[in-house]
Amino acid sequence: MIVDPVVLELAGLVRAGIPASEARTSLSGRLEGMHETQRRQFEVIWAVAEQSGGPIADAMNNLSRTFTLAERHRRQIELAFAGPRATAKLVNLLPVACLGLAQCFGLNPIGAIATKPLASICFAVGLGLLVLGRFWSQRILAKTEVSETDPAIFIEAVRFALVAGLPIAQAIHLTTDIFHRLMPEFNLVDSVCEVNGFAELNRDRGASLLALLDSASQIRREGQQHLEATKVAKLSVKLMMPLGLITLPAFILCTVAPIAIGLLASK
Hints:
This protein is an all-alpha fold.
């Protein structure tokens, strides 16, 4: 996911005096070309700003800043991913490279695979294990992918509705309805409970509701970033499981066994 500055440009057009709907129409092609997750978050914030009557330029500026921070974190995670991904690819290519080298040195493992049933069986089993090991490695990598949804998007939307002048109950109701319509997969239960808790603190203790929402947004984002960084840090250890249990035995069956069988048969 690459961040397109179109949201920031939209905010600039609105701030320059162009009506929001006209500014959006002029950038509609690029807005539609945004990544699906970004586009849906944009639609949520746009709907909240439009229905609450708040300044759309400010909403777009905040959303653009959120996208930029998320993209910076994603790039850091991608750099951390590079090592484990390269290791997984290299391990899967090793048997092919070793077979080629052995054939070049005259050990003729390919000939043994083609003519010796035992070598053929070893190679077929090893090849199956390699496919299984690759599938396992890809599953581990896929589970460690970075989430592209801002965990604080609901809190940010409620905050903006409050800034626009809505009462807290109305702001929560409006935002919840928009999320049900545009992002139904988003888990609202925890977010709604958290915001209601902040509303009670505001009523009982007089605590600043906007400050509480700002802190909650920061904590949620930092918590998700820490969780993702921890997953990546454990990735190398997890990848050792398919490497040790499947890939190394597959390497032996695909390369060492045919070479040994070929050498024994030639004597």
